[in-house]
Every structure is written in C-alpha cells, then in structure tokens.
Amino acid sequence: MDHVHVHVAAHGFPRGPVGSGPALGGTVHSDDEGALHRSVLRNDARGIGVGGGNGWRRPREGRAPPGFTFPGPGRCGKGPTVPPRGPVLPCRSHPGRAQGVGIGSADERPGPSHAGADMTALTAYSIPELDAHWRAANYLAVGQIYLMGNPLLAEPLRPEHIKPRLLGHWGTSPGLNLVYTHLNRVIRERAVEALCIWGPGHGGPAVLANSWLEGTYSETYPGVGRDADGMAELFRQFSFPGGVPSHVAPETPGSVHEGGELGYALSHAYGAAFDHPGLLVACVIGDGEAETGPLAASWHSNKFLDPVHDGAVLPILHLNGYKIANPTVLSRIPEAELDALLRGYGHDPLYVTGSDPAQVHPAMARALDHALDRISLIQQEARKAGTDPGREYARWPMIVLRTPKGWTGPATVDGDPVEGTWRAHQVPLAGVRENPAHLKQLEDWLRSYRPEELFDADGRPTARVLACVPEGERRLGAVPYANGGRLLRPLPLPTLDAHAVPVDKPGRTLHEPTRVLGQFLTQVMRETAGRRDFRVVGPDETASNRLDDLYQATGKAWQGITEATDRNLARDGRVMEILSEHVCQGWLEGYLLTGRHGLFSTYEAFAHIVDSMVGQHIKWLKTSRELSWRAPIASLNYLLTSHVWRQDNNGFSHQDPGFVDHVLNKSPEVVRVYLPPDANTLLAVADHALRSRDQVNVIVAGKQPCFDWLPIEEARTHVARGAGVWEWAGTDHGSGSGSGSREPDVVLACAGDVPTMEVLAAAALLREHLPSLAVRVVNVVDIARLMPHDEHPHGMTKAEYDALFTTDRPVIFAYHGYPWLIHRLAYRRTGHSQLHVRGYKESGTTTTPFDMVVRNDMDRYRLVMDVIDRVPGLASRAEGVRQAMADQRIRHHDWIREHGTDLPEVADWSWPY
User: Fold this and answer.
1) Of 745, 888, 738, whose CA–CA distance to 806 is shortest?
2) Helical (H) or strand (E) element with 286
C-alpha cells in the first residue's frame, strides 16, 4: 500500500500526551487506495521539519524563522483571470482524463500527488502572498477585539483607542484565517465553486476580517469601506452596541452556519453539498465541537453522499488543543488512535502540523491540492459508473490541522503562558485600558504583523495581500450558495384536488392522513426528479409514518454495502434516513440554507432531541428577515406524527407532545404550529407550508385511520382562516331542536385529530341527551390564532376572538398537547376565566386508544361532564346525564381489562348526524 505524507514537523508542536508517540516529525499516512498515481511526497517523507524537542519554539509572529527566505511570487502573484467553470474539468493528477462536473481544474504545477516534489516546487505556492494575506487577516482579527480607534497604528496606542469592553474569541481565529487564506488560493487557481462552514463560529473576527479583505463585506455594507475609515468601523462595530455579533452569524457575508452552538457544522456541510454536484463544501471542525454527540454522528454522513449527483465535503479538523478551560480529547489521544478513528469513519486523513508559518503554509497548500485531486478522481470514477450498485465505496479525503491555540498571539501574559494554551481562548490581554504594560504588549503584538506592508497609506489591502483572493462570486463571502434564497425556485406542487379524499358527509369515512400526504409528496418527488431540489429526511421512520409511497418516486439514499434483503436503497435516493435526529435536522438546514426545499418527518416525542437546533435556526431566520440582502429561503417543515394519543406499540416513553410548546416560545414572526384534524386539512396545511418562506412550520398529524371531516375546498378555507365554527357540528346555528342562529350556552373547542373526534362525539352526546342546549363547536388548526394579534402575525384581534369564543360563556377546550399551553396563549383574552382546557397530563402507557384519552380526562364522557359542571344552572337539571357519563367511564375501565379492546360504542362510533 502506497502512502501520501502531508505532515510538517515544525518546532515540535506536541501531537498528543507525553508517551503517546513521537512529537511532530513522525510518519502519518494517507492511503490513496490506488486511485491516485502511486507517489510519495518526498519532501514530506524527509520530514521538512525545522526542529523537534520537548516543546515548540515560537517564531516571531507572522514571520519566517531566522535564515528562511520566502521564494518569489508564484501563480497567485501573477493575478490570473479566473476562467469560468466548464462542464468538463480535467484533474491535475490525470491531466488526460475528464471528470464531468467534478471539483478542480487542471494546472501545470507539481503537487502532492506527484512523485519527486521537492522544496523547489514550493515556489509555485505563492508563499509570500499567502503569508501576507494571513498576517493581514490576523491583524484585523486582533483589531476587532481590541481597537475603537487608530486602526493603522499611525500613532502609539493610547487607552482611548481601546474598547471599554473587550469581547471576542482570539484562540481559534489564526487557524480559521489560515484555512480561509488557503481556500482562496485553490478557489482562484482551480475556478472552484466553494462554500465554507465555519464550525468554530465563535471565531467571528477571522471570518469578518477575510470578508473585508476580499471586498464582500464592503459591498454588502457600504458604510464599512475597504480603507482606513472602513477598517476603523469594522473594528469599532465588533461586539459593540449597535454593531455586529462576536460569532459568525447571518450578518456575516458567506455564512450559512451560526457559530454560537457547537455540533452541527458537518451535517450542515453535507446538507449544502447534496444535489449541488459542482460544489465543494469545506467544513472547519474545532476540536471542542468534535466532542459533541451531534458532530460525532455527523461523520457518518459520507455514507449518504452520492459522488454522481452531490458535491463534495472536505472536513478540516482543527486541533488547537484546548476548549475554554480544558484540553480537548482528540488533541490528546495518540495520533495512531486518532488516525484509526477517522479512517473508521471512512476518511483518508491528511495531516498538517506546526507552529512555523514558513512550514505550515506549503504543507497546507500541498494538503489542499492533494485533497482536491482525490475528490476529482472519486467523482470522475463515480460519474463514469453512474448509479451502479456495485460501484466502489468512496473514501473521501479530509485534513487534520494542528496549530497552536492563539497562534502568533502573546506568548506569555503576566508570567503565565498564553499562546498554545487555554488562556488564549477569548481575550488574551485583559485590562488593556488600565494596565500600561498590557497596552504596550498589545501594540507590540499588532505591530508584529507589520501592517505597513499589508495596507497602503489609505488603509487599503496591498496587491500582495490580495494576490490569491478569488474574484466575483467565487469569493467565499459572495458565493450565492451562502445566500440560498437567490438560487431558490418554487416547488412544482400538484393540485390538492388530485390527492384529496372525498367527503360526502363528515365523520363517516376514515383515512390515514399521513398516507394521503405521502401520495402528495410522492408527486412532488416525481416533479423534482430532474431538478433535484426536494428531499425528505427522518430517523428511520418514513415507512412507519405512512410515507412509504415516496419509494415509488425515489429510493433511500445509501452509499454503503447492500444486502439481498434490503429494500428501496438507492445511490441517488432523495429520502434520507439516519437514526440521529440531530443529523437529519442538520442535513435539512444545510439543504434549505443553500436554496432547496424539504420536510423532516419524525415521531412527535423525539422532536425534542432537536430543541436547541430548531432554536438556533429560528434565531437565524429572525435575523435574516431583517437583512435586506438575505433572500428568503424555503421554510423548515416538520411533520410530527406517531403522536402522543396513538403510540400503540411503544407507550409512555414515546408520549410527549411538548415540542410545540418549545417552538411557540420563539420568534413569532418565524414560528407556526398546525394541528390539522383530518387528511384534507393536512394536505392544505402541507401545501401552504411548502410554499412558505423563512418560517419554521410544525405540523402535528396522526398516521392511524381517522375520520374525514371536511371536503378539500372547505379544508382550504379552514386552513386559511386558522380557526372557525363548524356549524354542522353544533346546535347554535339551527342544526339542533331550534331554528336559526342563537347565542351558544357553551363552546366546545378542539385542536388536533384525536381531540376533534372526542369533541364531536361529546357534541353528539349533548345533542342526544340535552337537545335544548346551544352548543358551538370551534376547531383550531393554526394554534397561534389564539394569541393576540399584536404578539403574533397570525393572532386574532380582540373582536375576532370574542366573536368566536364569546366573552362570557364557558369554553371547554380539548387540546392535543399539554393543556397549560392554551391557557398561556389565551391568558389575556376577555373570557379567559371561562376557559377550561383538557389535554395530555403525563398519564401514559401502552393501552387502547380510547383509554389514553380517558386516563387524561379528555374523553367524550368527561367533556360532557365538564359542560354540565360549567354551564350555569345545568348541573341540577342534568344530574342524570352526568351520572350516565361517569358510569360509562367506569364501564370502559372494566371492559378494556376484560376484552383488551375499546367499548363497541366507542370503537364503532361515527358522526351520527
């Protein structure tokens, strides 16, 4: 087996704990599986190291070590015009072969996959230009954390030049700047369409610095020009009132990933790559983030990436050694163990390690070139083989980058080591305004980057700094994939009439709502087969949730080994199942943020697993809606099914309807919650949700057979208004013993499929036993309608609410979830004191469907008793009816324990009128 070594031993930067293996300079392999030319990077095999020992020696910040002379200008320095990406791009390692629409393009330079590369070849990598860009980005990152004046150090620093509150994260920024700098080179030279996911998003200063250098920041925000005044504003606004956040955020050009919460970078990257065959998605993963559960599961995403129809993901695992106050796991395990872990995940890792820029720059350049060559060959071979199930399983390259935390920052502060330790995580120098020694140390630190070489007298970046920066929409801050709404096309949705179920009379026929929806979604899959911009994700529940008609139009994405017993697996499938809700959510978010559409189907109880993720996405959408340059994206749509009331096979562990409570706490302009009572209203809700933009739509619907209540036209109207009176079900509109409309004595309200059935059964019992009672039946499908209009755009005005629910009549509300949510949403309403809510009270088990509602006091008999108890004067007149209802509940209790099924009058009930 041949190997490729891309391992720089520079100043002995430790690779692991003492005794774990040789420090730096040891041999680390990247198997090429025979796909690349049999070659060895002889310069790396010889070590290319400049030292070893028990600790790394820190060179002057941003400078070559003594005795090293950077070679002259290379390819970037010539400033070539970037050619447009054609339909066929050759690969450097195989110049005579075409790769379809794969990543990379030809150039004549020797590279990491060619034997005989030596130090003379490094001149082609434009090391001075790369280093100048990196130093400029580092300077700008430090300036954002500390300075509010004197951006070019035109005079000695004074306390008034320093921000009163020092906020931000320096530790990860130099590594991010290195990655950004080197991605610029390969994008420019190879005409690559690339997007980068910045997992250590708390390194906002780095990404902002680079977008300012390339010009996209100033184009997006003209008030922050690419000159001295603009630099001053860039510095001042960072983590400052009225300015920009300290993390990579929606305000950051080129970003699709909020860096405030760790764990989702890699799943976002794969989501972005799906169905974008010409896109390279680089993903920087911090070693802190690598410890999270969601990130650990995300490594399996490469088993779902189709080299034919999808782009490529290049993970860059950045090991700088520390979290906030502790070492990181992956930086301290023996490197052989780390290598085995990453290979076990299906990657061929390339290692770049060091603290000396003169060595790290060429090593990083070689690693990127080798990785992109390898990606090109994987795609070339796969696109030649097509969807052949016997196609070889791809092992994708990745890069492991080890550089010190806080690289090029202060080596020590007040006698304590900082660079290369946890102390560099945020602000290495505190109290700069008050401490003259710290002020002097900050100035020395800033001047060590030699800003006079990087910016001209007007504060503009010099030609050398910009030599390797791509142009136009190739720039990472300008790539349209990072503003996915620009690429979004409306879905070709079928007409609802073609999929609606017929309803001649309400409550007589039954259908499985999600199966009806599945037929609708299958047509969407067919209509998008050519354009490939719609996917359904879920944790191994598509068939369980009755959406398996989808397999008539597409298979389940799968790149792994297949067995004869497998069903519906396909290399090019667009249904995606992995038993990790985090990964499902991350895939779909990345897919939506880069201009496509999708649906997340999951069991209701386990939607809670992504509580924090959806919160972050809602924050992203809220902020994006306030940015004029962010184009609206398709909404994140959840289908929560296998819900609390019908967990027939699983029981209490699977009974939790609280996800909607969590979502409704969030930004009202973004969140929507729908509880369609039947198949046709589910169709109408889904049609609306798939057309919406910049929202999170939570749809709760059952998969078990339930009654059909509304014809499709009435369902459309009902969904449009969100809540309304079902006149045919009540007795306050002449449908009872009287005639004409009259004031109701009581309002029976419902939200959700099972509550709707119980309310209607209760209404039928009241009509039978108390025919003179005026009952109004209200169904709520859009739960936010209960909120005041000034608190949610879907909320009802006071007049609308009072007309629907009255101001002084009892309202008995049967709700799908926890009853206190309804009280919270309606607490400011005039008739709140008359509102009595029944819902799930954490009384669950594996039992019969009707027993679930009895256990939680939401059954039809209990609802009739509630009406009798709360309508003034009715209790004394209807005591016999109340007793009959209580007796039915006792009879139910005994019946199910004897027969194991519900009472016949319950199991066989249908709407009798």
Assistant:
1) 745
2) strand 279-286
Higher pLDDT, 875 or 732: 875
Characterize 445-473 residue by residue with b for buried, 16 or more Cβ atoms within 10 angstroms of its Cβ, and e for exposed: bbebbbbeebbeeebbbbebbbbbbbbee
pLDDT digits (tens, 9 = 90+) for 313-349: 999 999 999 999 999 999 999 999 999 999 999 999 9
Angle at the Cα of 603 from the Cα atoms of 602 and 609, rounded to 5 degrees: 80
Q: Note the helical H segments in 265-321.
A: 265-273, 293-298
- For residue 350, the SS3 value is strand
Q: What Rg do the C-alpha atoms of the chain give, in angstroms? A: 32
Among 365, 347, 258, 281, smallest CA distance to 41 is for 365
Sheet containing 312-319: order of strands: 193-198, 279-286, 312-319, 396-402, 347-353
d(CA 157, CA 781): 62
Instruction: Centre a 10 Å sphere on the Cβ of residue 700 and count the other Cβ atoms it contains.
Output: 27
Q: Which of 726, 749, 727 is nearest to 811 (CA)?
A: 749
Helical pair 860-870 and 879-899, crossing angle rounded to 10 deg? 160
Cite the beta strand spans of 798-895 per DSSP E.
811-815, 835-838
Distance (Å, whole) CA 76 – CA 429: 35
d(CA 408, CA 119): 25
Would you state the pLDDT for residue 647? 74
Rounded to 10°, the helix 228-237/127-146 angle is 50
Sign of CA dihedral 214, 215, 218, 221: negative
Among candidate residues 780, 855, 849, 782, the one with its CA nearest the CA of residue 813 = 780
3-class SS string, 71-83: CCCCCHHHCCCCC
750 three-state secondary structure: strand
* Helices of type H across 274-415: 293-298, 329-332, 335-344, 357-385
What is the C-alpha separation between 781 and 789, in angstroms, rounded? Answer: 16
Report how far residue 285's alpha carbon sits from residue 489's, in angstroms, rounded to the nearest whole number.
31
Cβ partners under 8 Å of residue 560, min gap 6: 303, 393
What the block records as the tokens of 400 is 């492991």
770-792 pLDDT per residue, tens = 999 999 999 999 999 999 999 99
Distances from the Cα of 579 to the Cα of 476, 548, 582, 584, 592, angstroms: 33, 17, 9, 8, 20
Taking a C-beta distance cutoff of 8 angstroms, is the pair 672, 698 a contact? yes
| pTM reported for the whole predicted model | 0.89
Q: Residue 841: phi, psi to the nearest 5? A: -120, 30
Q: Residue 523: how many CB atoms within 10 A of its CB?
A: 18
| Strand order from edge to edge, sheet including 597-603 | 569-570, 556-557, 575-577, 534-538, 597-603, 636-641, 696-700, 671-674
Q: Which residues in 612-646 are b (16+ Cβ under 10 Å) and which e?
A: bbbbbbbbbbbbbbeeeebbbbbbbbbbbbbbbbb
Name the DSSP letter for residue 97: -
